[in-house]
Design brief:
The protein is of the alpha/beta class. The protein has ten helices and ten strands. It has one domain: Glycoside hydrolase/deacetylase (TIM Barrel). Helices cover 37% and strands 14% of the residues. Helix 1 packs parallel to helix 8.
């Protein structure tokens, strides 16, 4: 079955929109995203390499039915050590992040999920397994819907409430994904990379708020892929923040900083996070927020922001 077109959104250039005024007059909304991810060790009969979810620490690809001990344990470092270093840094800074979590992370690494819950941090479902992308099921709509439903069911059991937002693993959803999420009662979809402001996606179940992600302002692209030094990473983050903060004087901007505990949680990188967030705390009119808060707020103001698409 071919992939159906289950969602759409208009093209509206940013100069053609109404001014966006964040709560309290904030110029910039900052979302610090901590991705809590779990990869399957192997898949019986799979000869293609297991999707690595980013660059591998050892680049030689193994068949998917063979446990890749180096790359699996590299990522597990984030669960055993890196995430606790990251949590400690955020606690000291008084920053509440938005934590994404796979279904398997909720099942296999409950200790980490409970630590985020105890802090009152947002938890956002992030597929069942990090390596099983929704796009693998682009021609199997029933299978995609089942994966989403299973993840949301476990989320409800573990977190104790219904989910409000969704981020697909590897930011790979299908055209149907926003519609399924709206059907299940979610209000925010976060896979798209195409904006510095929230907007509405139209689905056959009704509208859902897009809270855009960033793959550029992301520890993987900065450090693991880009091999940036800690110093260079901080300079990049400050440059991004400064530009968005300046633009936000006339219409609010959103900055998302994506983090992975096995990347930013390494001892030689954690200072980049501390230095950047210390810098941000020196500015007024910054709304440190999460996806649910942005989506609920935007549902009340969207008609003034983007009244109609530009031809």
């Amino acid at each position: 079955m071919s992939e159906e077109r289950g969602s759409s959104y208009p093209y509206v250039a940013i100069p053609d929109r109404g001014a966006l005024r964040f709560p309290g007059g904030a110029r910039l909304a900052l979302v610090v995203t901590v991705n809590l991810e779990y990869w399957e060790e192997s898949r019986p009969g799979q000869k293609e390499p297991m999707f690595p979810g980013g660059p591998a620490t050892i680049p030689h690809a193994l068949p998917g039915d063979v446990w890749d001990s180096a790359n699996w344990t590299w990522r597990e470092y984030g669960q055993r050590v890196g995430v606790w270093r990251l949590f400690e840094a955020l606690d000291r800074l008084g920053i509440a992040p938005s934590c994404t979590c796979n279904g398997l992370m909720m099942r296999e690494r409950r200790r980490v999920i409970d630590a985020a819950k105890e802090r009152g941090w947002e938890l956002v479902p992030h597929n069942w397994a990090q390596n099983d992308l929704l796009t693998y099921h682009a021609h199997e709509p029933a299978r995609e819907r089942e994966i989403i439903a299973r993840t949301l069911d476990l989320y409800r059991q573990v977190v104790g409430r219904d989910a409000c937002a969704w981020l697909s693993s590897a930011i790979r959803g299908t055209r149907r994904t926003p519609s399924y999420l709206k059907e299940f009662g979610l209000i925010a979809y976060c896979d798209y990379l195409n904006d510095d402001q929230p907007y509405l996606i139209q689905t056959d179940q009704g509208p859902i708020v897009c809270v855009p992600y960033s793959n550029d302002v992301n520890d993987f692209n900065m450090f693991a892929r880009g091999s940036a030094s800690t110093h260079d990473g901080v300079q990049m983050l400050r440059a991004c923040f400064d530009q968005l903060y300046e633009e936000g004087a006339t219409s609010g901007r959103l900055m998302n900083f994506g983090l992975h505990p096995h990347v930013i949680g390494q001892p030689h990188r954690i200072s980049a996070l501390r230095e950047f967030l210390d810098y941000v705390k020196g500015f007024p009119d910054v709304w440190v927020t999460n996806r649910e808060q942005i989506a609920r707020w935007y549902l009340g103001v969207h008609e003034r922001h983007i009244p109609s698409p530009h031809p």
